[in-house]
């Protein structure tokens, strides 16, 4: 084949892709539908030119198009890893982990159920074997992720709902391709009715083997890219190699699922790369992959659609009937999942509630595309598959794909409009009038100042001002007419705006290196959760998400458990330092939001709503300050070190901004500018190393802050610090139960607990202690102690506590006083403790 012709065809394809996207927007068609139509049209025209006797001038081009080396391996090894990898990079993985139950349920259950329904429907009315019919079911169960996600983004669905559907559509392909591999093996071996246990027995290996391969390759790639910190192009090259190597090693060397390997590799990079790569490198990596995936997604649709005329060659009415059976069975299976499984998940609290219009949009928007055609092509290319099965799979998969693209895709916009999902809600419509009125008032003030500065003609200014005033008056009237917005709704909308402003501030600080790279994902996740919780539950959701942002994460609780049970301090020190930095950062961000409320919210929603938002924000600030004060009590001085580090990083950031400005103004040359930036990068790298936190050393400092230990001298205090053990508890943790052995005394270094005994409740705070009465009575008293705030305890065993009682009269008096307050006789105190005589 002539290289010139091939080059011209490829260039023409890219030109067509460039024209197709704006054309699809103008025609209000899904991009994938237009691409499929383009591919089908090219294939039909090429076939016509090759067969017609009108002219032979275009025969070389037509032959080149029809003889393009389009094989299933081209789709599965070249295009599919690109598409899957890019989708995983764009996901909010940490938030998606919160919804792993509905995502996996929809992905795995939907694929298996759809395969079962479609396969048995074909088996009942056709003469093909059950395994061949199930193979068709697995092939057509692969939805097109880009089409499904595009639907939800076009109708502005809730973010959590979009995230669930996005994860489901991605894992749907992975599960369907893995199931396709199992069933394809039975078809090639000639097993007509495989045993269900045998059919699913290899499935765990496919999934786990692919997942382990992807995780290992993802971690290795991030480690290599982190080592190439000064070579951006090298980092990008490593990222490009990652999905293909993961796919090939898993699929060809290990016999596992290459699709799962690519997905897990992408998720691993998504989770670990932001903490290991510079923000600029991470941004560049995602931009490069977005471009690669755009090209791959478009080309795979066009090239796959080229095959449709060939695959449908010789189609009969019986084939059309079987295709309609596949259509009906696929829609039925998807409807059962959407209207059966999803409501059950919503009732159980595992998934957000999905309204009927959304479910109808998903049902009709389940477009099939290039992945389905690629799998069908793999079957038609295999000589080990019987000829009649090859033809049946090719015709049915292609016919069903064509139906979803032409019929469903062509009417999708109309369906969305009919369901009312493309219209603003009454609340949003009323808010838009308020926003327009406020924005026009601000614009009028700015335009007035600009005309005064430029000394424009008064007649022109007066004429334009009159037209603008008419527009402003109309906007104000519409805003005054939309008084149906309740204060409760205004507060919700205001909180959503405040949460969005907080997210923007977080992004700005991340871009300016104002926070450690490893914490960026946690901060963005908290900001996203704040927005979503407010959208769902208003003020209550905002408060709940605010408490969650200040509370302990799963990782912190795990580190606490390791320290409390096994004395392993490293993970806890690491997580505590993270908590320090996050709280300091939150405090700085929250202080900037007050100005946003006064400048924006007050003008849109009024003074009363602004005051309520200030109050809610003030409560958040109090929570952050309280949590930060608790940490400062535990580790005095460490917060000061972090604040000094923050000031130094801010100074370097501002210094870099000045150099950028001087370079843009031409006051410094390229060579000097590059040298100055390199110096800034070196100093930023030095400041990126956070000061270490030694929890073990802090025990003596913690003991010094307990008032009961104030009379001890430094030597005794140092010895006591070695004997004390530090335990951390989150609110709600049960510290002492009725079955706890009476062998430990707990001193409260920071926080608060609630002690419940004999129907009475006592609240103890910093400097108080508990457990001493049960120890002196030498039996467990029927009581419970629960943490009601983030609490740090210093614990002593019974022998060391008795020695401390002998040494400290203040502690003996405190023990006696606490016993009297709780009505517990403590005659054992004098006999158990004999103060040492001086001399």
From TrEMBL:
GO terms for molecular function: potassium:proton antiporter activity; sodium:proton antiporter activity. One of its GO terms (biological process) is regulation of intracellular pH. Coiled coil: none annotated. It is found in: Cell membrane. Gene3D superfamilies: 6.10.140.1330, Jelly Rolls (2.60.120.10). InterPro entries: Cation/H_exchanger_CPA1 (IPR018422), Cation/H_exchanger_TM (IPR006153), cNMP-bd_dom (IPR000595), cNMP-bd_dom_sf (IPR018490), RmlC-like_jellyroll (IPR014710). PANTHER family: SODIUM/HYDROGEN EXCHANGER, SODIUM_HYDROGEN EXCHANGER 7. This is Sodium/proton antiporter, CPA1 family. It comes from Tranquillimonas alkanivorans. The lineage of its organism: Bacteria, Pseudomonadati, Pseudomonadota, Alphaproteobacteria, Rhodobacterales.
